[in-house]
Amino acid sequence: MTTRYAALLRGINVGGRRKVPMAALREVLASLGHTDVGTYLQSGNAVFSSESADEQALSAELEKAVEDRFGFDVDCLVRGGDYLRAVIDACPFPAASLEGKQLHVTFLSEAVDPAGLAPVDPQAFLPEEFRLGDRALYLYLPEGMGRSKLAEALARPSLFKEVTATSRNWNTVVKLAELTDAD
């Protein structure tokens, strides 16, 4: 059975470093045997179809292929369309009434212990808020990610040891879910 996936590459094409042209990323995915390959924006979002049902293996395969092609390490998370729709459905914030830049999802490579977030005092960052979901951290950031003190605090490596994390704004999450829709 073929599954539609989104690949989320972390930290590429930001500030002129770690350049990965989207056409080249599509070539890499096709060379791995994936079909219906596409990209979205220039910030490391790709969609593809695969016979594999193993997201971790797909992530590792893509990480190696990107390193082989471009010469640098890039963390990648691969998530199926069903998972992306579940993330949208589980959003604890009123997404329909917010601007896309106000709501973000940080995708995590694995489930994390909520106790790991204990060093971040939610009251200290109001009106910014966060909620932990299934391998996802939802962020409500009224002024956006760029100026967020909460996002900065949550990005500390000590909070999520050994966990790959990459964030996308709500508009991108919704678009990737649409692009991975099997219908």
The main β sheet shows up as: 4 strands, antiparallel
The CATH class of the largest domain is identified as Alpha Beta
- The total of helices stands at 5
Counting helices, strands and paired strands, the structural category is alpha+beta
What general form does the structure show? globular
Measure the end-to-end span. Answer: 14 Å
Q: Which strands sit side by side, in order, in the main sheet?
A: 2-3-1-4
Question: What is the CATH topology assignment of the largest domain?
Answer: Alpha-Beta Plaits
SSE topology string: EHEEHEHEEEHEH
**Beta fraction:** 15-25%
Describe the structure.
It contains five helices and eight strands; from the N terminus they run βαββαβαβββαβα. It has 183 residues and is α+β, with helices and mostly antiparallel strands. A hairpin with a 4-residue loop joins β2 and β3. α3 packs across α5. It is globular. The protein starts with a strand and ends with a helix. The mean pLDDT is 92. This is DUF1697 domain-containing protein. Pfam families: DUF1697 (PF08002).
